[in-house]
Write a structure and sequence with these properties.
Elements lengths: L2 H9 L5 H20 L3 H18 L8 H20 L9 H8 L9 H20 L2 H11 L5 H8 L3 H21 L5
Length: 186
Amino acid sequence: MDDAAIVALFWARDERAIPAAAEKCGVYCASIAGNILPDRRDAEECVSDTYLQAWNAMPPQRPAVLPAFLGRITRNLALNRLRSAAAQKRGGGEAEAVFEELQHIVSDRDTPADALDRQELVAVINDFLAALPETKRRIFVCRYWYFESVPDIAARFALSENRVSVTLHRLRAQLRRCLSERSFML
């Protein structure tokens, strides 16, 4: 079933929407949650919560690309669950490593002035990513959006783990320079 048909089921409040969405995007959403959350049961629960949030979001939202819509919901739910469980550091997921890698590039301060700058920051990062060659952009997104491990990325792109690590290190340095040039506080 295509995206439009599944979204139409959500809009019609037809209960077949959830199994159809799970069939089309379940593995994708489970992969996202599993990369972020170290506990498999938490990841499964997060995916289940994704369908409930999608049910509540449609209508009024009508996503054009259902996997991206559900993936974003899953990612946000998984990150929220990780934050609430992160009072003590738990291993197994890639989220802690990703946050550690990026901590020196983007600060975690959250003032009203920062909220106003958030849109500009997103635009700068999008411009940065758009200017990268496709493979580097995909490596960056796999690591910092999907929280994939370096070995998984290396296997996906048929590169050595060292090459992926060096590429990510250089991309972080480029992003740092780009943000610094645009006067973002680092």
